[in-house]
User: Fold Amino acid ABC transporter ATP-binding protein from Alloscardovia venturai.
Amino acid sequence: MPNSVQDMMPVSQPQIEIKEVHKAYGDLHVLKGINLEVMPSTVTVILGPSGSGKSTLLRMVNQLETITGGEIDVDGEMIGYKWVQKNSQKVMQTLSDKEIAKQRSHIGMVFQKFNLFPHMTVLENVMEAPIHVAGMKKAQAKKEALAYLDMVGLADHVNHYPSQLSGGQQQRVAIARAIAMHPDIMLFDEPTSALDPELVGEVLGVMRKLADDGMTMMVVTHEIGFAREVADQVVFMDGGVVVESGAADIIDHPQTERFQDFLKAVL
Ligand code: ADP
Ligand code: MG
Assistant:
């Protein structure tokens, strides 16, 4: 007899598995064997100084960069490549653009720069990809977009243009736009770094809500408070390697001098 609810739950598999991943740009070896697992419905915060390879790692998960070595699995499936049988031998083959697009469709990404379409209203920005990429009917796309914009606190701004919004509002539109594609993973690359300090909280609030709703998230940020309160896992990278990782309380007990120095600089 199982003696707790936990014993009855199926053992869950990582949703993202990064295995001994390397990345080189020519001679520049940027990622030097990254291993990382992200469990479903958890938040992983990645910390690290500029140039440590954080963006490169996120971009590889979303296949905006190719993998030089190692493997990344998302939802149990290797990304970017597949094994095929060729003359009684198994060989690795690059996926077609269509197959890559399908894998990427599970993942939403939000960048430091919001990159909204300036000539479209807030509502049109959020409806664009569901209609033109996912083939959703216009009425359905509108209904959903309005709900997502309400979720990010912008129900009153749906007919505004991006230039009429603050940076924090624009970033919240960018989040709604990503969510509108129904991703099951969200990647955030320094989503609040371009914002005035007083606008950071409203964006972090939306991210926290997403996390509470069970979204699997990887977040590169220097917001230590967010990491402490929301992260299930914190990863400190430096020089293309994971220097320390663990539960959020590693922030309060950094083991290495490199992590200690980094925290001193950002706190
Ligand atoms: P972080 O996000 O932690 O600041 P990045 O992943 O952006 O770090 O960059 C890591 C290193 O890789 C840096 O030295 C950067 O200059 C280099 N780099 C990033 N993108 C490219 C690229 N497309 N071509 C060449 N070098 C790059
Ligand atoms: Mg970066």
